[in-house]
Design goal:
With 68 residues, this protein is of the alpha+beta class. It is built from one helix and two strands. The chain has a two-stranded antiparallel ribbon. The longest helix is centred in the middle third of the chain and has 16 residues, at 22-37. The protein is elongated and about 55 Å long.
Length: 68
């Protein structure tokens, strides 16, 4: 599931989700916009923001104990 909704952590069982990191995507977009407005040269216009996997109980095998 891809979602930024924190409610998935409180379902039964808690659902594993993939965050696309909208906070980081927004920061990168603003940085690029500022570079364009200021006509900056040499700015790398290709940015990658790694998603974050939020593993929760919905993806654990039955009988396994979560690691700490």
């Amino acid at each position: 599931m891809r979602s930024e909704d924190p409610d998935y952590a409180t379902t039964t069982p808690p659902v594993t989700a993939l965050s696309l990191r909208p906070d980081r995507v927004g920061a990168e977009a603003v940085d690029l916009l500022i570079a364009v407005v200021n006509a900056c040269s040499g700015v790398d216009r290709h940015r990658l923001v790694q998603p974050v996997l939020l593993p929760r109980r919905s993806t654990r095998r039955a009988g396994t104990v979560p690691s700490k």
